[in-house]
What does this fold into?
Amino acid sequence: MLYAKSAKMVMCLVMLIAATACASKSTIAPTAVGTGPDEFSIMPAKPLESPADFAALPVPTLGGTNLTDVAPKADAIVALGGRASTATGVDGGIVTYASRYGVDQSIRSELATSDARFLKLKAAAPSFPWVKNKYERAYRRLALDPWAELERLRALGVLVPSAPPEG
It folds into this structure.
């Protein structure tokens, strides 16, 4: 009789473990995130403003921004005394200088094709299965050593403001 009770107890325990093993992990974990909103991704909008002249409103642009859209980087630049025009991250002078000899409209597709060909050539070499980043391995010999480049620029007298000071 004692044997039958312990056998029933063991069977119940095995069935309980089997039933919980079949459940998905999200229903077992007490800290599982539901489908509710992420309170950290919600940013309050700026207050609405009434324009001075409703007849002189700008034409809406597709993909453009609103005055009430939040732009934390631009707001921080303005708050620290900078200009809002530099907050977009596009420097017109650099773009003009870089495109002074013309711009090839198909450069992205040409580079993608060339890169795919180069990676295929490099992937033909034997590699170890635990090597995860084959892209870095393929371009290792073409990579720039930042410290050697810093020393080269300093030797030329070029001021590199983002570099750590010499110590």
